[in-house]
Design goal:
Layout: H1 3-13, E1 50-54, H2 56-59, H3 87-96, H4 98-101, E2 106-109, E3 113-115, E4 120-122, E5 125-127, E6 135-141, H5 148-160, E7 164-169, E8 189-190, H6 201-204, E9 214-215, H7 227-235, H8 239-253, H9 259-274, E10 278-281, H10 289-309, E11 321-324, E12 337-338, E13 343-344, E14 353-356, H11 359-362, H12 367-378, E15 387-389, H13 407-416, E16 420-424, H14 450-455, H15 457-475, H16 477-481, E17 483-488, E18 492-500, E19 503-511, E20 516-521, E21 531-534, E22 539-542, E23 547-552, E24 556-561
Parallel strand pairs: 1-2, 1-16, 2-7, 7-10, 10-11, 11-14, 14-15, 15-16
Antiparallel strand pairs: 3-6, 4-5, 8-9, 12-13, 17-18, 18-19, 19-24, 20-23, 21-22, 21-24
Helix pairs in contact: 1-15, 3-5, 9-10, 13-15
């Protein structure tokens, strides 16, 4: 974003943000040193949660010693090589309170399993698997991202702050074939045809793109483990243990030793061993849906097994959560995804939610249209399930506000819309999405702009706004999971209500308010004499004659009961 424009935003909204980022503490933290912070009595609900999504390699470098590994030294296209971000870097920011200040309930990071060692020579420039979606070995972590101990510390640290962890998983394909990464055996993968996306068959039983071998997820035929994987395990000294664990898994489940069953075992090990709270599942529509039902079943079993062994670390009784990326799926079409010749309701196959591709287009309409529509759907067709809203992502080349000229409205739209919210790293700091020389998705994946956050007043202003909305959302399930009702058209004021058992939550929000004196109509929602608090302007209020009066230069109000 241009600095001049950011400055205008800063002065026009008069948001004074004095927070300074402290230098990161590089002290290594072990699981035993992590103390759990007491959590409040606010019930957690995934339907209204606030998720922070980041690219592991592009967020924060917590350990410079793992920046280079596996001889990944070939020159690459712009933003197409590893840049140093790692698991330790995420943990570092959890400890600094970065996510807590944003009101984040859960962190989703791109896959950290071992990636292909080589690079691919594409039209967009030579590329390594920095993004995590080119798996070589599901049973190991990639050294560029860190170790399993690093991942254990991350999960424990997040849980100690009341933050959940979503692991990004890929089941339907391996990484590309390179000189260093031969193709998996033919009984495991198909290498043709390439998907055409016009029918169920040519979307699920095909390779997503050229040179991306597709796992035969529909197959029930028993297959042998690849010789290369067995040799790798032997070299690493874990062959016997891996084989023993597989024998126990297949004995317990009764599954055939099919490709999908092996991968399901390997993916759910991270849940069983570390207490991962949920999955974000990649490329859902490119695999047979029974694979997802089995993945959810085994992940849920693994999660309960972890809880039983780690009772003092369990956050609550929330079940395992699974959200899917069905590319181009939108909630406007209801629960089912239409392949053209077949419709599939993925909610019947283990998914608690799907990523909603509609909001970036709906965002062009007025607030009331969006909020009313999303609240209605959440409380009817999607009741008991949910959807995850986003406005920016890692592989959507047409995000809302790509030039970052509306960073505050982006926060309003995303964090106040009913449903689960997904902040993409740098949404809250207007990270540049138009990098010179970067082609395709790479331009969306620049390194996190920590320098702007620490040193640029305009960026601090934007971040302050996101933090206020994020923390308000975090405290009030009514915002994301509640029922919406407009209280006033001009100025625009609405209410949200949510109840679960003995817990009841009610809030009022005003948007596009005039500067100076303003009146917010709350009659029929908050009675006369009710003490309220505007968390945005930090003002105590009393309801009189069905309304409250504010005088400030903000165009937003976030009203809650004064405690």
């Amino acid at each position: 974003m241009k600095k001049g424009l950011l400055a205008i935003i800063t002065f026009s909204l008069l948001i004074a943000c004095k927070e300074q980022q402290k230098a990161p503490d590089k002290k290594h933290v072990t699981p035993k040193e992590i103390s759990k912070e007491p959590q409040g009595q606010i019930p957690f609900v995934w339907e209204g949660a606030n998720i922070y999504f980041l690219l592991t390699d592009r967020f924060n470098n917590g350990n410079i010693k793992n920046d280079s590994s596996l001889n990944r030294t070939d020159p690459t296209g712009v933003l197409r090589g590893f840049m140093g971000g790692d698991i330790a870097g995420i943990t570092e920011k959890i400890n600094e309170g970065y996510f807590s200040k944003l009101g984040v309930h859960a962190i989703w990071f791109t896959p950290v399993v071992e990636q292909i060692h080589g690079s691919t020579d594409e039209s967009t420039g030579n590329t390594y698997g920095y993004h995590g979606y080119w798996t070589k070995d599901w049973t190991a972590l990639d050294p560029n991202f860190g170790t399993k101990k690093d991942l254990e510390v991350l999960v424990k640290t997040a849980h100690s702050k009341g933050i959940r962890i979503l692991m990004d998983v890929v089941l339907n394909h391996t990484g590309p074939v390179t000189d260093h990464d031969p193709v998996w055996p033919t009984e495991w993968v198909r290498t043709a045809p390439t998907c055409e996306f016009t029918s169920y068959e040519n979307t699920t039983s095909c390779t997503l793109v050229n040179n991306l071998p597709d796992i035969l997820t529909e197959s029930d035929s028993a297959v042998k483990l690849p010789d290369a994987l067995l040799a790798k395990w032997k070299t690493e000294g874990r062959l016997s243990n891996e084989l023993d664990e597989l024998a126990v898994f297949f004995e317990r489940t009764g599954y055939p030793r099919s490709p999908r069953a092996y991968i399901i075992k390997w993916l759910t090990d991270y849940v069983k061993d570390l207490g991962i709270d949920g999955y974000r599942v990649d490329t859902v529509k490119h695999a047979d849906e029974k694979a997802w039902a089995e993945l959810y079943k085994e992940a849920s079993y693994a999660f309960e097994a972890w809880k039983n062994k780690n009772t003092d670390e369990v956050l609550d009784d929330t079940p395992f959560y699974m959200v899917g990326e069905v590319y181009n799926y939108g909630i406007s079409d209801g629960r089912k995804f239409n392949f053209g010749d077949k419709k599939v309701d993925y909610f019947n196959y283990g998914f608690n939610g799907l990523i909603n591709f509609d909001l970036k287009n709906d965002a062009k309409k007025d607030y009331e249209f969006i909020f009313k529509k999303y609240s209605s759907l959440l409380n009817t067709k999607f009741k008991g399930k949910g959807f995850v809203n986003y406005l920016t992502s890692h592989d959507d080349g047409q995000p809302f506000d790509k030039d970052r000229v509306q960073p505050l409205k982006t926060a309003n739209l995303l964090l106040l819309s009913p449903g689960t919210s997904q902040i993409y790293y740098g949404d809250e700091s207007a990270r540049d999405l138009t990098i010179a020389g970067a082609q395709g998705d790479a331009t969306l994946r620049s390194y996190m702009n920590w320098n702007d956050i620490e040193n640029t007043d305009s960026t601090k202003t934007i971040l302050a706004h996101w933090r206020k909305l994020g923390k308000f959302r975090n405290r009030h399930p009514a915002i994301g999971a509640g029922k919406h009702k407009r209280l006033s058209k001009n100025p625009y004021v609405f209410s949200r209500t949510y109840s679960k058992g003995d817990f009841k939550d009610k809030v009022v929000v005003g948007l596009d308010l005039p500067k100076g004196k303003k009146t917010l109509w709350v009659k029929g929602f908050f009675g006369d004499g009710t003490k309220l608090y505007d968390t945005y302007s930090e003002t105590e209020l009393t309801v009189k004659k069905g309304k409250v009066m504010l005088e400030n230069d903000y165009d937003i109000a976030l009203l809650e009961l004064l405690k």
